[in-house]
Description:
Elements: H1 5-12, E1 18-19, E2 27-38, E3 41-54, H2 63-78, H3 95-106, H4 113-123, E4 138-139
Helix pairs in contact: 2-3
Amino acid sequence: MRMPNNRFEKLLSRCPTERVPQFAGQRIRVAEVIVSLENRRPVEIIRTCYFYLNFDRRGFADYETFMKHGALAIEAHMGSFWRFPEDTKKVIRAGHLFAARRRDHEAVWKPTPPLAGAICNAALDDPAYPRVRSFTCETI
Length: 140
């Protein structure tokens, strides 16, 4: 199912009226695909990102968990860049390695190569992957 970015931002903005009832109580896999456009047509994949998004029992996006997963990703990436004066060869700073393991288990997912290809083709408007029109968000 495809969702416009502005709708996704509204879901994460903690707006008390935006929800997706068909995802209530679920953790869903999200594929975020950034594309380059020419004449309003997608022509190239710039970046893909695969992550989980949790919804509460009423279909509201779980903003707190989303932000915790983001902080975990930053910790996993940045921890290896920091050095401390007291570091010696006997000290191994591995916090970022543990954060990366946790991120890979809790926050992100990896598609199979065929699924990744299908996602990219759909993002480039391949006619074999039509837009799903039945996707609905409810405003309370």
